[in-house]
Specification:
Length: 237
């Protein structure tokens, strides 16, 4: 396995807060890696730094073998980094179809875009039923589907998911996690930040636990599910 993403001693500060205090992590091609931890642990800040949305105050990010910590977000998208942000970030005054097409704005081949749309519909049949509906009128779960579909349209080498289950009903959480599971089974490399630790660890090949800006534990998803510290702190046992 070759590491698609390699992060060394990453530090992120903003507004006088040291949100991330020097973390190391890596994601190998084809893996689903989860980053779990309490609110305010620094998970989302880490993801935003990897995606080029926040500039790290120190450390090194390598993506596809090249230094990426100083690259702007749009260049990382061109390289093959896709992100579904926390809060979904759909274009509310645009239709579902327009939102999805925005994900393919770098693609010139109309036939390939059409094929990719069909693939997205196969994961989210509900979207195909109402392509002309404005994204702002959708439920939270449906907006999450649009955000994920939009990221998939760019055919990313690495997909970053920031709290995909946040604010969703249990049945919608199940639907979204089924899609994540299928994407992973079909070879998509995924780095998942998720508050629902049990669900994340059940799916993940490997996982990292983050506390107060530092990584305190790492291992396979199975190992961490069985770790007494994780069970007490995150699984309510």
């Amino acid at each position: 396995m070759s590491a698609l993403l390699n992060v060394k001693n990453l530090k992120v500060s903003y507004g006088g807060i040291n949100a991330v205090k020097g973390i190391d992590l890596h994601v190998d091609r084809g893996e689903l890696v989860a980053l779990i931890g309490a609110n305010g642990a620094g998970k989302s800040s880490s993801l935003k730094a990897i995606a080029g949305v926040l500039t790290p105050s120190a450390g090194e990010i390598q993506f596809l073998g090249q230094r990426a910590e100083k690259l702007p977000a749009y260049e990382l998208v061109q390289l093959g980094l896709g992100m579904v942000p926390e809060g979904r970030g759909v274009f509310k005054r645009m239709t579902i179809l327009e939102n999805l097409q925005m994900g393919a704005f770098l693609k010139k081949d109309a036939t390939a875009v059409k094929q990719k749309l069909e693939e997205v519909y196969s994961y989210f049949p509900r979207l195909k039923e109402r392509l002309s509906q404005l994204a702002g009128t959708l439920s939270g779960g449906e907006q999450q589907m649009v955000a994920m579909g939009r990221a998939m349209m760019a055919e990313p080498q690495l997909l970053l998911l920031d709290e995909p289950s946040m604010g969703l009903s249990p049945i919608m959480v199940e639907t979204i996690f089924d899609v994540i599971r299928n994407l992973s089974a079909n070879g998509m490399t995924i780095l998942l930040v998720e508050q629902n630790a049990r669900l994340a660890l059940q799916m993940a090949n490997r996982a990292y636990v983050m506390e107060s800006g530092l990584i305190t534990l790492s291992g396979s998803g199975k190992e961490l599910l069985e770790d007494s510290r994780v069970r007490t702190a995150y699984l309510g046992e």
